[in-house]
Design brief:
The protein is built from 15 helices and 25 strands. The chain is an alpha/beta fold. The structure holds nicotinamide-adenine-dinucleotide (NAD).
Length: 543
């Protein structure tokens, strides 16, 4: 087929309400029941073949950790090597598949994510990652579909962008995929990131080894089945379960390692980068390293900010999904004139937030992902409580008996350099620093310097000068700055996601930039009437 084909203009997938008694709530509840009634074996998928063997690990529901939902095999070096070999074998044909055919697969995958797979995606994300109906819907259904649809549209723009040619020349830009294979390593906290990180390089013609988080295995299995049903050929994305350290050690040591698409903690990304550097002499090409990592996201409040909007933003962005969004608010800077009222209101509201089973319509806060996360929060609460500079306002306890439950917690601190304003804890902990209203000029540099991260940031003010000043002083303190909105909730096609400093390489998931990282352009210049005389007019030809 020949033609300058056009893909549909994408739109953000609307979310369903999940109001009690709604058909979608009933349907997802039935899925949950079904999934809970069995222990699923979640296999590796290499070259389209499923395998399960060797050492295994249980997959449990964080909010009911005695309940085993499935088991994953832990890949040894031979499994990882077979996934790499499958990727390399698939590369030749996939790299030559017309881009619009690759696009059609991901467009179909988007329809499946919003259609026949939707409720299973939502239910597995609720159970395996402890998200509420609403949080699962916006992640596992809407954002998965958005990534597929918008990426296809962005790919079309990239391929359409061609060099100009003067008469007598014909210039082409060949947007080649990378030589070798891409390793995608994904985190537990978003099913959509799990779907997106292997898919983006694959859409651009690369073949991939995908190592999902052990703690998102249930939903990753659904994503893989969905991609296969959408028509993804065997070997293009090879799913390998297991320890990230072990899988990465094998993958990164191969001469054909062409790139890493990573989202997770800063510490793991740094370790991976160092391993890549150690292997640099053995690679065929310089690998592309893309990493979206940790955050310590601030809400900065000016005295002119809207009170109700600030309170709503703080409650939602600090405690939704238990503070386990990379963009979650975990520090706030509040003027003295607003603080007493805001403190009392927030404490009262937080006390009413129900922590518990995510399938209950009353639950706002589920469980943190595992025991290590719960102990990390417990340790942070203890460290903060031991300091004179900190005052516990609400929460501060953990309840590990049935699920990994951590109370939504707020500390107030008088120390602008406190560890609670600097470190990422990845749980429901907000620390507030109160400043004197007249010290706005001084508080902005404190926000900038307190933490090594630069992911998201919110500024609340109605005073335009204050907004402009914050945008200027905090220019490098985040990759996404929200004015009068919470720091969570990036949407494909509107706000692309990524951060600088210790928060990552800022390649902006959901933008042309992030797709471009998986391409290695080749210019082809064809001269239609080549020169046939080696001399130039300026030369004296009389000698
Ligand atoms: P994590 O770093 O523990 O794990 C991420 C992935 O890396 C998992 O697949 C894991 O198995 C693997 N891994 C773990 N240790 C490894 C090692 N030594 N070598 C290679 N791979 C290894 O992160 P997580 O707990 O899954 O997710 C939470 C973190 O992710 C937080 O720091 C959060 O801020 C970050 N995050 C960032 C973004 C963003 O866009 N910036 C988005 C989501 C999550």
């Amino acid at each position: 087929m020949t033609g300058n084909f056009r893909v549909p203009r994408p739109h953000n997938e609307p979310e369903r309400s999940f109001a009690p008694g709604s058909p979608e709530a009933d349907s997802v509840r039935a899925q949950i029941k079904h999934i809970e009634s069995q222990v699923r074996d979640l296999p590796h998928v290499v070259d389209g073949a499923r395998s399960f063997g060797g050492q295994t690990m249980n997959v449990v529901a964080p909010h009911k950790h005695a309940q085993v939902l499935g088991r994953i095999p832990m890949a040894d070096a031979s499994v990882t090597k077979s996934a790499i070999d499958a990727s390399l074998r698939a590369h030749h044909d996939w790299a030559r598949t017309p881009w619009w055919e690759r696009a059609a697969i991901f467009l179909r995958a988007a329809e499946l994510a919003c259609g026949s797979y939707r409720d299973e995606l939502v239910a597995t994300t609720m159970l395996g990652q402890s998200k509420t109906f609403h949080q699962s819907e916006i992640d596992a259904a809407c954002e998965v579909a958005d990534f597929f649809r918008f990426n296809v549209f962005l790919a079309q723009e990239i391929y359409a962008d061609q060099p100009s040619s003067l008469q007598g020349n014909f210039n082409l830009l060949d947007q080649r995929p990378l030589e070798g294979f891409v390793l995608a390593v994904t985190p537990f906290n978003f099913t959509a990131i799990g779907a997106n990180l292997p898919s983006t390089p694959a859409l651009m013609g690369n073949t991939v080894v995908w190592k999902p988080s052990e703690k998102a295995a249930l939903s990753s299995d659904v994503v893989m089945r969905l991609l296969e049903e959408a028509g993804l050929p065997p070997g293009v994305i090879n799913l390998v379960h297991g320890s990230g350290k072990d899988v990465a050690a094998t993958a990164v040591a191969q001469p054909e390692f062409a790139g890493l698409n990573f989202t997770g903690s800063t510490q793991v990304f740094r370790a991976l980068w160092k391993t890549v550097a150690d292997n640099l002499d053995s690679y065929r090409s310089f690998p592309r390293l893309v990493g979206e990592t940790g955050g310590k996201n601030a809400v900065v409040v000016h005295p002119s900010g809207n009170y109700d909007a600030i309170k709503t933003a703080l409650i939602r962005s600090s405690f939704e999904y238990q503070g386990q969004k990379c963009s979650a608010a975990s520090r706030a800077y509040v003027p003295r004139s607003m603080w007493n009222r805001l403190r009392d209101d927030m404490v009262e509201t937080v006390r009413t937030l129900k922590v518990g089973d995510v399938a209950s319509h009353e639950t706002f806060v589920g469980a943190v992902i595992d025991e290590a996360a719960l102990r990390r929060m417990e340790n942070a609460f203890q460290r903060a409580s031991d300091l004179d500079s900190h005052r516990l306002l609400v929460g501060g306890s953990v309840h590990p008996e049935e699920g990994w439950f951590v109370e939504p917690t707020i500390f107030e601190t008088t120390d602008p350099h406190a560890f609670t304003l600097a470190e990422e804890f990845f749980g429901p902990l907000l620390t507030v620093f109160v400043y004197e209203d007249e010290s706005w000029d001084e508080v902005l540099p404190l926000v900038d310097e307190a933490s090594p991260y630069a992911l998201t940031l919110s500024v609340f003010a109605s005073d335009r000068q204050a907004i402009a000043q914050a945008l200027d002083v905090l220019r490098n303190a985040s990759g996404m700055t929200y004015v009068n909105d919470k720091p969570t909730g990036a949407l494909m096609g509107q706000v692309s996601f990524g951060g600088g400093r210790a928060s990552g390489t800022n390649d902006k998931t959901g933008s042309r930039l992030s797709l471009q990282r998986w391409l290695s352009g080749r210019f082809v210049k064809e001269t239609l009437s080549p020169a046939t005389d080696w001399t130039y007019p300026y030369l004296d030809r009389s000698f």
